[in-house]
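As the next step, I wrote out a protein sequence along with its fold in token form, included below for the reader:
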Amino acid sequence: MLKNAERFRGDVRTSVIDNGGGVYNHNLYFEILSPSSNAASPHGNLGKAINRDFGSFDKFKEEFNNCAKKVFGSGYTFLVKDSRGFLKIVDTPDQITPITCGLCPLLPFDLWEHAYYLQYLNRRDEYIENLWKIINWNKVQECYMQ
């Protein structure tokens, strides 16, 4: 439905994008988290693609963090794969998912207050920095290979 949201009219399209996007984004977000990260950085084909498209994992992480920290209000920052297999970082407002733009989401950071406020209060930057410690890179790699 999300890939073809433009086929719906008016309020139905809005509901599909908002509600469907919220479900998809949250499911992926929780799938890529792990209580103990299996690797400090991506590996395999995903690691190679990050190095190709960003220069290094450290440069990717810096660019991703900068994008996430600039999101105003509620939304997400995503690592996505485009139709040619190249990686990009995109921000989306509210519950918009990159699927509706023809992109394949790989790594979402949920930047809504409900994701961090109970533990971090208004320290969203600290939340963003700490998310890197619990990324399940095997799952992100699996998404990349699809």
